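Q: I'm writing up a methods section and want to include an example of the input and output format. Could you take the sequence below and give the corresponding predicted structure tokens, formatted cleanly so I can copy it straight into the document?
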Amino acid sequence: MSMFRRLGQLEAAARFRARRRADLRQLVKQSHWDAALTLLRAKHGATLLKHGTAAITSAGEARVWEAVLLLWSAVADATGHEAAANAAISALCKSSQWQLAVACLVDGRISSRDAAFGLAGYGAAIAACGNAAAWSHAVEVLGALHAKRVAPNSLCYSAAIAACGKSYEWQLCLELLQQALHGRPSAAERCRRTLGALQALQVAQQWEQAVALLASSWRNMWNDLLPAVLETCARSAAWRATLQLLGSDRTSEDVLLALRACARSTQWQECLHLYHDTANERMAAEAHTTLLSALTNAQAWRHSLRVFASLGSRQLRADEGVAHVLRALGMARQWNEALKLLQSSQCQSDDWCLSAAVWACQVAGATDVASELLSQRLEQERASRRKRKEVRLLEHLEQTAVRDCPASVINCLEQFATENSWLKVAGGEKAKVLEAAVRPTDRVLEIGAYVGYSALRLSLLGDGRQQVRAIESDPLNAAVAQEVLRLAGVTESVQLRVGRACDWLASGCLDAVDVLILDHRGTVYHEDLAHAEPLLSEGARVLADNVLHPGAPMFLLAVQDRLAI
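A: Here is the clean output for your methods example:
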């Protein structure tokens, strides 16, 4: 009985301590600093450190760096405060105060005596420097570790190498890698650090030199590294490097990775050569899809259809592979065949396949069929118990907006976005920027129509004489946009196109472009720009959203020397 009573007491004490930590975190989140400090200073020893670390972490999550320093001052002199110090550095980095974090680590400014900062704090600061493109500061923090005669771990080295790679300091990446491999770390550590360098070199596109260096320097670990190196190369479309790495004892898995790299580089001829080397049945199915992707993306649709004819749809992955064939049929203007394949492939519920089928119909001029496919997708979603917010938006507009009144539709849409659900529409200041950049006679192409909000606003410029073409890859979003534009009565001014932007830009169905608007995934903006450049008129303007967050680094690199930003 006494044992159970003792357990009950321990559980009650644990609940009490957890409640006090929760109270402290709540005070921090509500900016009650004096009360939080009073509660914290009443603690001693391990309890002080545990509560202090939790409070510092909460301040970092709230992005209040002043509170981080204030709370740290209450625990800085406690014995064994490494965890709290790491939390303070991480919190400063989360609060975008990486310069202060660096100063604390390099100059010891966080406390009156040397803080026993752990490697986690150094790693967090180095990573924050990399995110801020401050590679020199990342190297400085790494140097501070060496100055204290503390060996950096893989986290610190990888973060420093990545920071240099993001800033195209690829020679320094290799120097840091040599440092990281000095001292004979374990094989696992060598692999992790080497892969960190490879991922950094990916940004600088220095693949051939890096692979040659790695191959000559670390042959004794090459068999362990090869699959991971090939995977990294494949993700970066470094097809020459992958082919260089493949040896005579290649496996089906290795060949598949090389096939992916070639596909991402649109090297479809190399894909055809590699395709026959994937003998493994499971790998062969993946190879079919990868090959079809490469052929279709390179506009080699005749080869794509031949490969499909030799395979039969049963050997394809039920979604992605069929979608590539549907795209190829669209390029061949065989919309009837695309419709048959969609209906027979058990992929009617897959949005990628539906998007490709709608594209095939639209590009061949079967616009009524395409519109019906979109309407069917919309009705399917309306019947769902968990409707997407885009459909809920449409139902709100149908109930509240005045038909054939664009201003009413815009106002109701903005009201829904503000009051009911987060909706990524370019309203407010963004809308003003868009409208200021467009002249009444401009030919506008928007990639990323979403629910049609921006296209609707732009169509009203110049007394309704504006011609806008909008591309949306998601068929449900396109179906909603189609109904929004119909409700507003602007279908004569806005041409809605469904499918991949690269397919439409290569189709020959689009006119010259005076204003190009990019508003979808920033990671592919540079590809959109490359495909659209032949259509851009002299003096054309390019407007791109989200280039800093979530980010479009390759796009910014592509335009920095050629266009006025």
